[in-house]
Specification:
- The chain is an all-alpha fold.
- Helix content is 72%, strand content 0%.
- It contains three helices and no strands.
- The longest helix is centred in the last third of the chain and has 27 residues.
- It is flat.
Length: 69
């Protein structure tokens, strides 16, 4: 859960900005959007497998491009 401590002298706009940064850092909004609709366990696994494959392909491409020089 994201929370911040504010001083009485701190402007509200600055506190809101800090709160937004903290929420973004913790991934609260991303998590909310993912849980907004039910996703079957097989669909979750499929999404994770595709992300892993993309990550591995990126790593392979990076290795090949660095060896070319």
């Amino acid at each position: 859960m994201a929370y911040i401590k504010c001083d009485e002298t701190e402007p509200v706009e600055k506190a809101i900005k800090r709160f937004k940064r903290m929420v973004e850092k913790e991934g609260v909004i991303r998590e909310y959007k993912m849980r907004q609709y039910y996703e079957k366990p097989s669909a979750i696994q499929h999404r994770k497998d595709k992300a892993l494959a993309r990550k591995q392909m990126k790593k392979v491409r990076k290795m090949h491009s660095s060896k070319a020089y």
